[in-house]
Amino acid sequence: MKILVPVKRVVDYNVKVRVKSDGTGVDLDNVKMSMNPFDEIAVEEAVRLKEKGAATEVIAVSCGNTQCQETLRTALAIGADRAILVETNAELQPLAVAKLLKALVDREQPSLVILGKQAIDDDCNQTGQMLAALADMPQATFASEVQIAEHSAKVTREIDGGVETVVVRLPAVITTDLRLNEPRYVTLPNIMKAKKKKLEMITPEVLGVDVTPRIKTLKITEPKRRAAGVKIPDVCTLVTKLKNEAKVII
After folding, report:
1. pLDDT for position 248
2. How far is Cα 177 from Cα 225, in angstroms, rounded to an integer?
């Protein structure tokens, strides 16, 4: 069984994001970049499935500029067998990424596609669902546990009211939640081995996909700073402030 794992290069989650002074985007100069945490969970799960004997090959995929090779090398160091970079400098929105992945699914014919439920930079939570629709594959989103059978996958997924267990026929698309696993620490020997693994580079044109953005970003602004909290002596003062200042009580 072949597993396809899309990964995205994003600003590291420990970095405080800064907006450009002209409001045209996020300042990425000298900013640490890393793999999207949800995608790292997806790579870990795919590698674990291979280690259990449920899969024979794990293919990491990324879409973006040349620097995305670093992210793919990280996936290879975790345990992916080979990697594919769809190289483009265009602004990639979820629909474009889903179309690129659909083209790769048609080419590679994986039995399972595992990816993070969302990226921490745009929080769209759309790519997995769009891919499933385009490829006409069943989907199980927000997975916290995955069990693979011969022709199906049993997935425990996070929902608003608790958890839900579904069974999907393979090939299928699964998106990962935080509680699915804890990614392993990447060791130096594995990093060195990753440099020798195959990394294929192609373009959207080769795949026959138009990645022209459908949505235009007009402006990006930082959220307003929250005012400092104040201490109040009693409930009467609280009610007065809620009525006169916050205007939440009439």
Report:
1. 76
2. 30
| Residue 76: both structure tokens together | 């290879």
Give pLDDT tens digits for 191-201: 999 999 999 99
pLDDT mean across residues, the chain: 92
Tell me: the pLDDT tens digits for 105-130? 999 999 999 999 999 988 999 999 99
**Residue-range definition of the domain harbouring residue 121:** 2-223
Task: With respect to residue 236, please indicate whether it lies within any of the assigned structural domains.
Answer: no
The number of domains in the chain is 1
Mean pLDDT of 152-174: 94
Question: What CATH number corresponds to the domain at position 171?
Answer: 3.40.50.620
Give me the pLDDT at residue 225, please: 81
pTM: 0.85
The answer as to whether 80 is a domain residue is yes
Q: Are 58 and 115 in contact (CB under 8 A)?
A: no
Residue 188 has pLDDT above 80, yes or no: yes
Whether residue 55 is contained in a domain is answered as: yes
Q: Quick check: is 239 in a domain?
A: no
